[in-house]
Amino acid sequence: MAPAEEARPAPLFKRYCKTLRLQADANLLAAYRRLHAPGAAWPEIAQGMREVGILNMEIYLAGSQAFMIMDTVPGFDHDQAMQALAAKPRQAEWEALVAPYQHTTPDATAAEKWQLLERIYQLGA
């Protein structure tokens, strides 16, 4: 007889991982780090992220490759939320500020810059 399958609780959040290439210049990378240091990002940017359902976000660097982990509310619709975020106060100004540090086109949206990663492995449930 097969063991009864336990009911799994509903997830508390959805996780998205994204990547972005930055300019491979030590001075630009140092400046990009300073823009993202604790307390350096504009409060309106963090507030806008929370308003669209982003619960937590972390950005890591490996050389000039940025890697983002973004945890969101369970019912998060990524495309809809990114459109809503782009319309938030000061978001376009922030995107213009960070654009020179990013290896992308000047008119690219945040959604075009940050590429969603496909999860191919997960240990555990």
Descriptive notes:
Pfam families: rhaM. With 125 residues, the protein is of the alpha+beta class. The protein has a single domain (14-116), classed as 2-Layer Sandwich (Alpha-Beta Plaits), CATH 3.30.70.1090. 32% of the residues lie in helices and 22% in strands. It is built from five helices and four strands. It is globular. The model has no long low-confidence stretch (mean pLDDT 91).
Describe the SSE topology.
Elements: E1 14-21, H1 26-35, H2 43-51, E2 54-62, E3 65-72, H3 78-86, H4 91-98, H5 110-113, E4 115-116
Antiparallel strand pairs: 1-3, 1-4, 2-3
Low-confidence stretches: none
Coarse shape: globular
User: How do the SSEs run, as a string of H and E?
Assistant: EHHEEHHHE
Judging by the overall fold, what is the CATH architecture? 2-Layer Sandwich
Number of strands: 4
CATH superfamily heading: Dimeric alpha+beta barrel
Assign the CATH class: Alpha Beta
Q: How many strands, what sense, and barrel or not for the largest sheet?
A: 4 strands, antiparallel
Protein name: L-rhamnose mutarotase
Pfam family, one: rhaM
InterPro entries: Carb_Metab_Mutarotase, Dimeric_a/b-barrel, Rham/fucose_mutarotase
GO molecular function: racemase and epimerase activity, acting on carbohydrates and derivatives
Name a few traits of the molecule:
alpha+beta, Alpha-Beta Plaits, four-stranded antiparallel β-sheet, globular
